[in-house]
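Working notes for the structural subgroup meeting. M.R. asked for a predicted model of this chain before we commit to crystallization trials. I am recording the input and output together here so anyone reviewing the notebook later can reproduce the run.

Input as submitted:
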Amino acid sequence: MLTEKTIIELANLLEKGETSAEEIIKEYIKRINTIDKKINAYITFDDEKAIIDAKESDKRRKKGAHLSRYDGIPIAIKDNICTKGIQTSCASGILKDFVPPYDATSIVKIKEMGFIILGKMNMDEFAMGSSTETSYFGPTKNPYNLERVPGGSSGGSAAAVSAMIAPAALGSDTGGSIRLPSSFCGVVGIKPTYGRVSRYGLVAFASSLDQIGTIARTVDDAALLLKVISGSDKKDSTSIERDNDFTDELDGQIEDMIIGIPKEYFDSVSSDIHECIFTRINQLERMGARIKEISLKYTEYAIPIYYLIASAEASSNLSRYDGIRYGTRSNNASEIIDIYKKSRSEGFGKEVKRRIILGTYALSSGYYDAYYLKALKGRSLIIDDFKNVFSKVDVILSPSSTTTAFRIGEKINDPLEMYIMDILTISANLAAIPSLSVPVGLDSNKLPVGLQIMGNHLQEKKILNMAKAVESICDPIHPEV
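Returned structure, recorded in token form:
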């Protein structure tokens, strides 16, 4: 089946003339129409447009004018990345009718390569959540167990790749929103160094933390797609100019690489995950890597630091959605102040409102120094902690999550329990370093376990090479859905 192929395998088939873009798209459409009823990964799916784009790609290839060797290969896009002419709702009622008049820079780059957009993927509302249960369009389900969450906030993207209703996807990661769902769904997810990928066209949640990244079934595919979307951008002043050579010579050779194992990251991990992770660490040591126990002593403060900073930035970024400038306007108000109040009250979900209130409080007069400023100082300590560790090790390995996928509804009514799910991923965002999750097996409930690999700034190549080594010692896993 073409839907079982990787991006690289599909590109090879297209180059040899053994398939066409139209055949690939039609096979994906058929599978989506069958599978997505069960998992609810897609918010927007335009099969007619995809077929038209595929036919155009085939015409270009016949003329020898194809845009790249990946011209005609489909891809899925998280619904907080702007796509011209295609609904971009952020899985929120307040943006349910928003159709952007422009493409995000990352979308421009994939279109320049000829990738075809299959659709927009479900997510936690405005990327605020760890389970894809806060979506206005209902929860996405985990392909490995339909009673379990896929993780979040990029749950739709990860679930689609896992269920083979997309070969790869773009997601966004503010505190683990690519790595956590990738771990729960048994796929590879990369959060690059902050600034590696332009944020222009990514609907802002927390601007100093947000980053677009990639999700795929293999390390090579995830790396390839990341290379496509990377690069500096005049439209994003935080983007950086660096050589994007991190896909070259990914051979999985890790001899003499020093792997740091942070003791704090294993304190509350389930026994199944602990055993699975250390089995892989021992195998990596036999491959020639050197293991070194390290300490990241400020890990316990990461949750409050992150949620104060992220909520403060969210309260500012989401202030524009008032029913006047942006967002769906309430039909139950006529006075201007009531329009503001009711549009926001009706348009935003419970979790978004919770974070706006928390962030506004933290930024308010009399509390700014006590909360937000102190959180920024704490962030500096976490950054220094990583700098110190990376002077001694090449990469850091840990679980991607303390548990595997939990049941739908299990944590949604307990915000603190949900926030704690991010404890192992958020520090990478606070420190602006690259990090990825790669699947390393199944637990006793037949649910995927993810291994997190973190590297120093702009060291994507190191973590990808380590991920290749991990991939080489792990049997592939696939859901039965």
